Amino acid sequence: MNAVRFGAVMADRFVESEGSFDTTVRLWDSKSQSTKPIQILEDSKDSVSSLHVLGHEVVTGSVDGKMRLYDVRMGMMYADAIGREMTLRFFTIRLGKLNYLDPITSVQQTNDGNAVLLSTLDSVIRLIDKSNGQMLQSYKGHTNKKYRIRSCLGPGDSVVISGSEDGKIYAWELFTGNVLETLSAHNAKVASAVACNVIRNEFASAGVDGKATSPSPVDLLWLIAPGSVIVWGAPQ
After folding, report:
1. What is the pTM assigned to this prediction?
2. Looking at per-residue confidence, does 74 or 109 come out higher?
3. DSSP letter string, 47-86
4. Runs of H (alpha helix) within the chain
5. How far apart are alpha carbons 187 and 168 in whole angstroms?
6. What is the mean pLDDT of residues 216-221?
7. What pLDDT is attached to residue 235?
8. Mean pLDDT of 93-110
9. CA–CA separation, 123 vs 33, rounded Å?
10. Euclidean distance between CA atoms 96 and 80, whole angstroms
């Protein structure tokens, strides 16, 4: 199991979603006593590395290099193939002549539901227009070539935040793609995940440095051996 999300994807049901190594996404009705999933999505050709639920839509990222958007209410699915030079949309899944697809490590929809932020193993984060699959902006400077690294949107969807294989945390301005801040966080080890708390205007980073640190102006949240979790004030 790679990711679990909770959301109201149906009008009268709160549904738990889970992405897995077995290439499936499984949906459960949280109000039901049954352990059987109410739906299994089997379109991915490789491990489902990340997923995000917003309303009645489920977005998944897979090691096969495709972002899939499921409209659970309408029973429809769209796929975007993420390559080194281009992003292609397929209404019927067919690769064509795309030379190389980069494994997707992270997906998150914007709060308005119009775009998806995704990270890939080519050290590029992309903002993709959901309506046509086109890239709106890209974010570069971090390193992400070997490991699954999460990215996220900051408060108000104005900032993009990501970890990096050099142990740093990077923040970009959403619209321009310019780097706002670079934070040394995890002793040059992999900073593998970030998550934002919009209520407290903070974000947390997790790494595999084996040591908990608390650079100013942050407060230490907790230590999870052999790595650490740090809470930061969100970039402005």
Report:
1. 0.76
2. 109
3. -EEEEEEETTEEEEEETTSEEEEEETTTTEEEEEEEBSS-
4. none
5. 8
6. 35
7. 60
8. 70
9. 43
10. 13
207 neighbors 192 (Cβ within 8 angstroms): yes
More confident residue, 144 or 9: 144
Tokens for 81? 């193939």
Residue 109 has pLDDT above 90, yes or no: yes
DSSP state of 138: E
185 CB-near residues (< 8 Å, 6+ apart): 167, 168, 169, 191, 205, 207, 213, 215, 230
Among 3, 6, 7, 8, residue whose Cα is nearest residue 24: 3
> Mean pLDDT in the chain?
76
b/e sequence 65-78, b meaning 16+ C-beta within 10 Å: bbbbbbebeeeebb
Q: How far apart are CA 122 and CA 67, in angstroms?
A: 15
- Is the peptide bond prior to 235 cis by the omega test (within 30 degrees of 0)? no
More confident position, 175 or 208: 175
230: left (phi over 0), alpha (psi -120 to 50) or beta: beta
Residue bearing tokens 């046509």: 132
Taking the CA atoms of the chain, what radius of gyration do you get in angstroms? 18
Asked whether 204 and 186 are in contact (CB, 8 A), the reply is no
What CA dihedral angle connects 22, 103, 193 and 136, to 10 degrees?
A: -130
